[in-house]
Design a protein that fits this description.
This protein has about 220 residues and is an alpha/beta fold. The chain has one domain: Purple Acid Phosphatase, chain A, domain 2 (4-Layer Sandwich). The chain contains four helices and 16 strands. Helix 2 runs parallel beside helix 3.
Length: about 220
Amino acid sequence: MNELTIELQGEQVWLLPERALFWPRTGTLLVADAHLGKDTTFRAAGIPIPAATAETLATLSQALQRTSAERLIFLGDLVHARKGLDAVTVDAVAAWRAQHQQCSMLLVTGNHDARSGALPAVWQIEDAGEQLPETPFVFQHHPAASPYGYALAGHLHPAVRLVGLGKQKERLACFWLRETYGVLPAFGTFTGAFTVTPTTKDRLFVIAHDSVVAVTQ
């Protein structure tokens, strides 16, 4: 795995191929749109899909271990739906959380979280509300400019369509950094993606296998 170090608002940050952002100065790992329990929600509706929550948690453990993060902030939509909080999912996340007791965890509320209700207490994840300012950034779920700082958000599950010299096409998840806010790729294994249309003022970084690569526009 090869992260990419960039400067953002005068701060050094790492863009991780695990689809997370690490802020080394504060030991903070940022993750958007994990959608835990989405697999359970779909199976409850009679749609047979493979387990995804376990894979998402394993990838999250990998990112925590590689960065030695002291704090983990979820940028909304940690949980997909209330129906996804079955005993199996709750216990799996609780067991995972017990493995990372040294790391404090906070949740910035997303639209799915608001509908899912309070998190299980055993997860020990603090409710940070809808916005969490921390100069020069502000952490939130919905991508929009904020008076409190450069917004880091999720929600869109951004991806970009690339065309090769042989006219081959590939759609890849990406970090989409705009003038006033940046959007992280969806972290969850079982999530869709929205193809974005960047401008020449935007910075775009795609997840290419085990690396993060800047895209020249």
